[in-house]
């Protein structure tokens, strides 16, 4: 039979269980507005009954209960929603960076409102048409020279602006490993620094979590903190997380291939590798190296960012994360810059070829070089003396006709204006496409986050209801203690 104090013990356990449940509920309410906080729940279960059945146990109609206890403080979290949320976040990070860079490119091309290359190009051809009509007019000759100088200047200006945007994405340093040049500055380098910082934080928190778990405790708040860092890391690249029962974990960043973990388990400890971006000097593609020994030699696992920057079914993480978004933006910027160089190079070649056929007053060849340079980076008006200026009118109509003549620009037969309009259209289409994709991903992310909050988020109204429930349970248990005390007092002090 239970002892005299059996009832007091049951009531005491009831007060302790309900008090702890109220503490957990109070913790939820205090963190109702904390980003990334997961609702916690005190799991109350009955304690072992009196007594456990055995061979020598007297058979009774039922076992006598001994009260209740909080067996664990459970964190309410849906792992599968976390996976979906991180995947959505990685796509969002990808399109955010692409849209940001596309908008910067758009500012370089002021059409149709501003005065860009198209207006200057039209003015250039019109001035040559005027020169054909007035070949000896010094004023018209000066106008041709000025329009050529303006066209050269705007080519160089736009090239400088595109180069500045490119340098904002990446700046290369020296060769630190054979065959590769390190990226030392720009947005890509900044994102990689953030990745490295997050990896270290995740590794440190994971080791703290493992120690707590080894002491048979549940580190709910630390788990929330680690999940928040994983959510943030997912925006920078596709991640795959493998979590073991002891809360050690492996994290694959961008590439899920075994052996390319950025966080791994070594000797029971969770350790983080250092990642860095380099350009291969042979194929001019960019790679991310995973250095886990602090001695980068080029033998570490590497990931081809250029191949993965656009969607490729062969790579699970392709087209996801801000790092790949920046690499994709770099590729788009290079394509626009190459097309601008092709346009400038065609202008230099076509105009100079026509003016190479100029002759002097005696019919002798007197070729004139109108443009100097090779592309948009260095195109400029050549030095033309007074005598050569008087000869420009001979070929003025041929230069003017270039506006409606199909020429070879970058291996493509087209008109100057059409080629430039294609550049502008591509820039505008990129902005529109990236904006739409980002809006779609944000809508998907918001929907998944709403589902996740419905599971893990704190409802103040629900928690207040629980407070009242646990309060009544606590008061009832306390009342049982008072009743037991009165009964024992009567038994001990009043019976004679």
From TrEMBL:
Primary subcellular site in the record, as a coarse category: other
InterPro entries: Flag_bb_rod_N, Flg_bb/hook_C_dom, FlgK, FlgK_helical
Family to which this protein belongs: Belongs to the flagella basal body rod proteins family.
Keywords: Bacterial flagellum, Cell projection, Cilium, Flagellum, Secreted
Any one GO CC term of the record: extracellular region
Endpoints of the signal sequence: none
Single biological process term from Gene Ontology: bacterial-type flagellum assembly
Organism field: Desulfotomaculum nigrificans (strain DSM 14880 / VKM B-2319 / CO-1-SRB)
GO molecular function, one term: structural molecule activity
Residue intervals of the Flagellar basal-body/hook protein C-terminal domain: 455-493
Database matches in PANTHER family: FLAGELLAR HOOK-ASSOCIATED PROTEIN 1
Record-annotated Flagellar hook-associated protein FlgK helical domain positions: 103-365
Annotated protein name in UniProt: Flagellar hook-associated protein 1
Record domain Flagellar basal body rod protein N-terminal: where: 8-37
Cellular location(s): Bacterial flagellum; Secreted
């Amino acid at each position: 039979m239970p002892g005299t104090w059996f009832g007091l013990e049951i009531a005491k356990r009831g007060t302790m269980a309900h008090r702890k449940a109220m503490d957990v509920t109070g913790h939820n309410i205090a963190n109702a507005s904390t980003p990334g906080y997961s609702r916690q729940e005190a799991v109350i279960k009955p304690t072992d009954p009196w007594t456990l059945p055995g061979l020598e146990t007297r058979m009774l109609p039922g076992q006598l209960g001994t009260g209740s206890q909080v067996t664990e403080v459970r964190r309410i979290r849906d792992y599968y929603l976390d996976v979906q949320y991180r995947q959505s976040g990685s796509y969002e990070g990808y399109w955010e960076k692409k849209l940001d860079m596309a908008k910067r490119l758009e500012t370089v091309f002021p059409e149709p409102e501003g005065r860009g290359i198209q207006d200057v190009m039209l003015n250039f051809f019109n001035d040559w048409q005027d020169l054909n009509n007035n070949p000896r007019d010094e004023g018209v000759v000066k106008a041709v020279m000025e329009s050529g100088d303006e066209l050269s200047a705007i080519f160089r200006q736009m090239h400088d602006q595109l180069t500045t945007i490119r340098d904002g994405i990446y700046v290369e340093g020296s060769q630190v490993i054979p065959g590769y040049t390190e990226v030392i500055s720009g947005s890509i380098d900044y994102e990689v620094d953030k990745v490295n910082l997050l990896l270290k934080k995740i590794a440190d928190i994971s080791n703290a979590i493992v120690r707590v778990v080894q002491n048979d405790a549940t580190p709910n708040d630390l788990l929330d903190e680690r999940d928040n860092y994983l959510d943030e890391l997912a925006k920078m690249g596709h991640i795959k997380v493998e979590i073991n029962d002891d809360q050690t974990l492996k994290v694959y960043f961008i590439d899920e291939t075994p052996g390319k973990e950025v966080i791994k388990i070594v000797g029971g400890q969770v350790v983080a590798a250092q990642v860095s971006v380099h350009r291969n000097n042979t194929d001019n593609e960019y790679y991310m190296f995973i250095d886990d020994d602090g001695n980068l030699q080029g033998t570490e696992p590497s990931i081809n960012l250029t191949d993965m920057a656009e969607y490729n079914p062969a790579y699970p993480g392709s087209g996801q994360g801000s790092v790949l978004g920046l690499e994709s933006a770099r590729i788009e910027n290079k394509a626009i810059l190459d097309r601008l160089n092709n346009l400038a190079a065609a202008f230099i070649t076509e105009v100079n070829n026509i003016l190479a056929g100029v002759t002097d007053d005696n019919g002798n060849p007197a070729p004139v070089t109108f443009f100097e340079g090779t592309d948009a980076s260095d195109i400029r008006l050549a030095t033309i003396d007074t005598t050569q200026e008087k000869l420009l009118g001979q070929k003025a109509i041929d230069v003017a006709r270039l506006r409606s003549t199909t020429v070879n620009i970058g291996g493509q037969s087209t008109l100057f204006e059409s080629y430039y309009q294609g550049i502008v259209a591509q820039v505008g289409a990129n902005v529109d496409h990236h904006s739409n994709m980002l809006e779609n991903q944000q809508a998907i992310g918001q929907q998944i986050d709403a589902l996740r909050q419905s599971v893990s988020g704190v409802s103040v109204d629900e928690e207040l209801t629980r407070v009242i429930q646990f309060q009544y349970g606590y008061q009832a248990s306390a009342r049982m203690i008072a009743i037991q005390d009165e009964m024992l007092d009567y038994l001990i002090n009043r019976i004679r």
